Amino acid sequence: MKLVVGLGNPGPKYDKTRHNVGFEALDRFAAGSGVTPRAKFNGNILELGVGEEKTILLYPHTFMNNSGTSVRAALDFFKLPSESVLVVCDDFNLPVGTLRFRSGGSAGGQKGLADILRKVGTNDVPRLRIGIGPLPQSRDVTSFVLGKFAPQERAEIDFTLDRAIRGVADWIAHDLKYCMNQYN
User: Fold this and answer.
1) What SS3 state is found at 178?
2) What positions constitute the catalytic site (predicted)?
3) Active-site pick, 2, 3, 18, 19
């Protein structure tokens, strides 16, 4: 079983913002599945069969900075090790259009990921970072990540999200090392 966690903030106010690319990636991944989300673990989940693998998509609704609460509850319920989780999140340190699979490490300023690492108790949580930057010198981080993409960036992020969902499928079918070689 695999758990794919998309990070974002719930509600229409945050729809299509830079900070919600994790939610957008999961939406695209689940598109056409016909599966209806249900409330669980302080969020919404969808249960999908991906190839031979049962896969749970988790959208934490705890708001970004408390995402670990939802992830910890799902891990405990399904009795999954941290290696069976893939966190899909934004990264303002990477240019728009960049994907980075990593097996672990620091949160790199991503507060939702930081909360997950803290509540799971390890930095060894696989993640897929989607570039939303760079952060302009004149902008503060909060207003930037909660802002929407410029029209030319939107086209680039749409293309990147399509690549990201192929990467998620490859992570489920293969492994993280395969994805790092294909997408980084």
Assistant:
1) helix
2) 19 (proton acceptor)
3) 19
- Active-site residue flag, 19: yes
Q: Please provide the distance, in angstroms rounded to a whole number, between the alpha carbons at the two ends of the chain.
A: 24
Residue-range definition of the domain harbouring residue 6: 2-183
For 24-46, the pLDDT digits (tens) are: 999 999 999 999 999 999 999 99
User: What global pTM score does this model have?
Assistant: 0.97
The verdict on whether residue 149 carries a ligand-binding annotation is no
Total domains in the chain come to 1
> Phi and psi dihedrals of 46, rounded to 5?
-130, 135
Domain containing 113 — which CATH number?
3.40.50.1470
CB 57 within 8 A of CB 36: no
Rounded CA-CA distance 123/114 in Å is 9
Let me know: does 70 contact 116? Beta carbons within 8 Å: no
- The rounded distance, in Å, linking the Cα atoms of 91 and 134 is 9
* Distance (Å, whole) CA 3 – CA 172: 9
* Residue 73 phi, psi dihedral angles, 5° rounding: -60, -40
Contact 119, 68 (CB under 8 A): yes
Query: What tens digit of pLDDT does each residue of 120-144 get?
Result: 999 999 999 999 999 999 889 999 9
Look up residue 85 and give its two tokens: 């989780």
pLDDT digits (tens, 9 = 90+) for 62-79: 999 999 999 999 999 999
